[in-house]
Each structure stands twice: as C-alpha cells, then as structure tokens.
C-alpha cells in the first residue's frame, strides 16, 4: 500500500486516484476532515483506507505501519501556509518530515516522494525551469525556505536508508477541491466578485516562468490533459455548482 499524507486534500486525493488507477491501494492520512471525495468514495475498503493522523506525532505516525503494509510514501501534508510565525511553521513542517522519513526507514519503503514547490525557482531568471537548474540561496517566504531544505533532508535520508527519493516541485495547483481562498490562485474570488479584468499584464510583472516537463514526459509518458483554455471554463462551471 502507498501512504499519502494529506491524502484528502486537492492534490492528495487526485494523487490517490492516480495510484488506484495504477492498481496501488492507498492509505490516506487526514488531520481534520475524514470524508472521501466522490471520486474515491465507491472504492472497496481494502483499496482505500483513511487514517486520522497528526503528522507531528512520531508514535502515531509509526503506528500506521503497524496496521498496514506500507511500501511507499507520498508526503504531501503541510502546515498552514499563512502561519504568522515562521519558527512555528518551520518546526511543524520539519517535525512532520522527519517523522515521515523515520517511518520510511522503519518500514523499508521502496520510494519516498516529497512535496516541494515551484517557488524553489525564485531567483532563477531563465525559464523554462528545469530540474538541474542551480537554485539561489534566497529566503523570500517560509514555504520555499522549508521546501528546499526538505529536498536535501529527504535525499540524505534516502541515501542512508536505501530508498529512492522523488522531489515533487509542485506548481500553482487549482481546480475542484482546491482552497477557495487560496492566495496562489484568485479565480474563485474573482468569479464570485463578478469582476471585469482589463486585458494585459500588470506593470512590473516578472518574466513568465514555467516548468520544462520534457523529462517528465520522457520518463513517464505524461501528457497534460488540460491547457488554460480548457481548464478555466471547466473550473468555472464546477465553481458555479459547488460551495468551494
């Protein structure tokens, strides 16, 4: 089974769906709500298990492995992005990551995937951004500061314990089940405000940055199912019929 921390969030639940479609049963951790989204609700109980978990609780984290045979981990759980105290944020995120890495070592998993962020490329001025781009040492926000460290922590732990590590530099994710008040994507608020936006970009806007997915396509055969022209109307239609 694959353990997906934060498995009932927008990214986590869709990750779970993708794993299930590949034939992998999943254990999804949840810190607050334990309700499965509709596209997972009809799965048999031996295919989808929800485990309430505070990822900062080391004993509780390890106890998940006493109830399930975990062969891989996708660590997506995160502390609130708007935590006003960077020390508290870094402590919570670091504790959760170290607990996940300790569990990965104890359970002898094959692979550990850890959520990083596209913001790791802040200061890289030559898009498209590639995996081998040198990353500058800058601290624009607590999220990319921690995520860069998480990449190093995970790589070090995996090399010591013998499991593969995959870093997921996730971009701005939006769509159904996303947070309607996310500061990273304004469409829900703009739609509800019925605003008319002027054409063009804001003055002083930084150069358009985007990820080079060439390696992803070569390694996995991935082809995007949505472009902006298809995604925005699809999401708008969903927002008009859902609360969030």
TrEMBL record:
Residues 2-177 form the NAD-dependent epimerase/dehydratase domain. SUPFAM superfamilies: NAD(P)-binding Rossmann-fold domains. It comes from the Bacteria. It holds the Pfam family Epimerase. Belongs to the NAD(P)-dependent epimerase/dehydratase family. This is NAD(P)-dependent oxidoreductase. It comes from Actinomycetospora flava.
